[in-house]
Amino acid sequence: MRAVVFEEHGDQSVLQVKDLPAPEPGPGEVLVLVEASGVNFMDVYQRTGMYQVDLPFTLGSEGAGTVLRFGDGVEGLSPGDRVAWTGVPGSHAEQAVVPADRLVPVPEEISTEQAAAAILQGLTAHYLTHDSYAVRAGDTVLVHAAAGGMGRLLTRIVTHLGGRVVATASTEEKRHIARADGAVRAVAYSDAVAAVREVSDGAAVVYDGVGKDTFDLSLEALRPRGTLVLFGAASGKVPPFDPLRLMQGSYSLTRPTLVHFIAARHELLERAGTLFGWITDGVVDVAVTKRHPLDGARDAYTELEGRRTTGKLLIIP
Q: What's the mean pLDDT in 81-104?
């Protein structure tokens, strides 16, 4: 089978498409024909060495497709069933072996592409808005990079929960998208704090997936006892800082990651069920803006890292 791999850390140029031996599922594992896989910053962090992985490494951390066959001990699945997964490496490939307890059934109302595009970011958006900080009606919420795939999900979910989103984006075209998704203000990053103060006395929570470039203004935008949820580092890692800065407003800071919020299978299924319900009901719109073949993986990550996207990128094997 063909797969996107890298044998050393670096920029997009280290990505190669190689022929690998066809995988075989072991006990408790399922072999899936991959129909689509998502392009995410998690993959960038692995490729650049920010997240440590064993080399060589097959890229891709979420996907969706159909069951081909499975190993001993797998129950409740049949060949041809549509499934999705996240947090399992090796999805940028024609086939993938996935532990059965990490698979989520895809309902009839959801397309396989929608499932692949939504599973990682959608589950992340769920725990961010329900666990990292539980959004309540009337909360002012600052969402950075609001026109990207993650930002669009957050804007729509926060609005659905009754929050008021102040969105940041780098261009007026992207800010228009944020407003269409429900943001009450959509501004340049430099205007974020002023826009928040126009709406309220400060943000109850800031969802920051940008990192280094936005960390200071995220803190400044908070209300007293507000929460900064740092869930990514698209612009680079935040440098070490003095925790006494949090005392300025008794702020809370958390740096969560999805794996801890779907570790139990019942949590994985509950969150996925809510996510798929949101998609079916139109609460969130899974905006796939471009599809790349395996051979186009370098181009896909160049677009993602250049922050030229306004939705989700997919790899179609």
A: 97
